[in-house]
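Q: Given only this backbone (69 positions), what sequence would you predict?
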């Protein structure tokens, strides 16, 4: 299983996003994107991700879910 971001729930605040700080393999990051309503998005690099699920546990907005690939 791999993490999936439910964008409708994510406030994409890089300064307060626990998964960015807590991911042991640094697979979670903030991407600036003018096409996004708030100027950016949180993204998970699935090539780096080891499927540990820490991002799901620490996400304060419950925006990340583990799903079958």
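A: Predicted residues:
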């Amino acid at each position: 299983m791999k993490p999936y971001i439910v964008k409708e729930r994510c406030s994409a605040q890089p300064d307060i996003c626990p998964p960015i700080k807590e991911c042991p393999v640094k697979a979670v990051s903030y991407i600036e994107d003018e096409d996004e309503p708030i100027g950016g998005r949180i993204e998970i690099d699935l090539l780096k991700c080891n499927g540990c699920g820490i991002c799901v546990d620490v996400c304060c907005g419950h925006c990340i879910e583990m799903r079958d690939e």
